[in-house]
Amino acid sequence: MKRPFPFHSNLVWPAPGLVGAFVVIYGLVSVYFWLIAQTAPEPARSTFDVPEAVSCCEIILGFTAALYATYRLLRFHPACNPGYSRWLKLSPWTADRPLPAGPVHLVWQDAVVVGALAAIGIWQHVNPLLPVTAFIFVYLAWFTVLLAFTRRWGSCLALGFLWPSLMLPGIAPVPPTSVLPAICVVAAMAYVIWYGYRQSLKAFPWDFIKTALRSRRSSRSALDIEVRIPSAAGTLFELGWPFFVLSPKILPPTISPRTNLALGALAGWWSFCIIKASQMDPLPEIIVLLTIVAATFRLLIYAAGAAAPFNILGRIATGRIIVPGYDKIYATPLAVVVAAMLGGIIIKRSGAWYPETESIVIAILWWVLFGGGPTLRNWALTGQFRRRAPAIVNSNRQMIKQV
């Protein structure tokens, strides 16, 4: 009986060309440092006594291990090869069978390749764990990106909390601390990645990839994209203002409250891990400044091309100082700036608990900034505003080509 996930495959061996390039480059570098060692005023006993040679060897071995980890995923993962993915979609393959082109998961041949790099490191007086660590972390990092590409959001959320945990004091694999906590975190990451990878294979074919590629043109009019109405001007965008402004648009989807809650928690956790790892001093002023910039940027996105129904003099004359249908776009920016100021005061008074306080404040600011209303879709459909003509000279003229 054939095992669904064999842990051996001769397909994963590096290509002979890559092996030959590594041998040539490594040999030339070794000869170069050997000549330097022999022509020095005090000739060294061996190349290993030259510090630059050891450093160069570390770089080559680490880069080679990282390159092999990248090759393992880019070569065998269906999401990295559109042709392979299309062929697999038309084949009778199912998720409970091994991939025809080769396994994405690790096999014993990977241990041989990385072990050979570690053996070379021992021979050159280099820490043998360097190529092993480089391979593991690059492999896990690329796999995390592929899980996001295949929309395994639950696994990506768990990995988003696990990755920065490696920076925390007591977990970071930095001497003299124990490496056991780091190994436990890496093992948890490997399990989450394996689970997400299995779920992504069960969700194959990934039809949402084509949808995402088509949505890149969402800035154009919906009539031009979906209906494709022919016009004398070629495209609706060339008709100029106000025809393009008034035409229907495909608006980006709004961020759901659950997604906003998860992203805000990730922002707070990453901030906490970075603060604890770098041991930086509390910086409430920087948080307030960045919040003001972010609030201003949000306000510019909403107010671009839109103006109030009437100006300040009109508000005074009519007695409608506040226009709720338009002034609602100021509510969230003002709320997030006020929250940042209050958070800065709390951070100043938090004492030794400032890392936890700063991370909580950052998470709350994220939730308010991206979760506060109105959404872009609600603003575009129900906002009480008038379209402002562009400031560029002659840009509002209708561009009609002669037929």
Can you offer a commentary on this structure?
This protein is mostly helical and 403 residues long. The protein has three domains: 10-202, no CATH class; 218-250, no CATH class; 254-387, no CATH class. The protein has helices at residues 16-39, 51-76, 82-90, 108-123, 129-149, 153-162, 180-202, 208-214, 222-227, 243-246, 257-278, 284-303, 312-318, 324-327, 331-348, 354-371, 376-382; strands spanning 306-307, 386-387. It has a two-stranded antiparallel sheet. Helix 1 packs antiparallel against helix 2, helix 4 runs antiparallel to helix 5 (129-149) and helix 6 runs antiparallel to helix 7. The longest helix is centred in the N-terminal third of the chain and has 26 residues, at 51-76. The chain is extended, with a radius of gyration of 29 Å.
Features:
two-stranded antiparallel ribbon, mainly alpha, 403 residues
Q: Based on DSSP secondary structure assignment, what is the total number of beta strands?
A: 2
What fraction strand? under 5%
Q: What coarse outline follows from CA principal-axis ratios?
A: extended
Round the mean pLDDT to the nearest integer and report it.
82
The CA-CA distance between the termini, in Å, is 71 Å
Q: Please work out how many helical segments DSSP would assign.
A: 17
Structural class: mainly alpha
* Helix amount: 55-70%
Kindly give the count of domains.
Answer: 3
Radius of gyration from CA coordinates: 29 Å
The order of strands across the largest sheet is 1-2
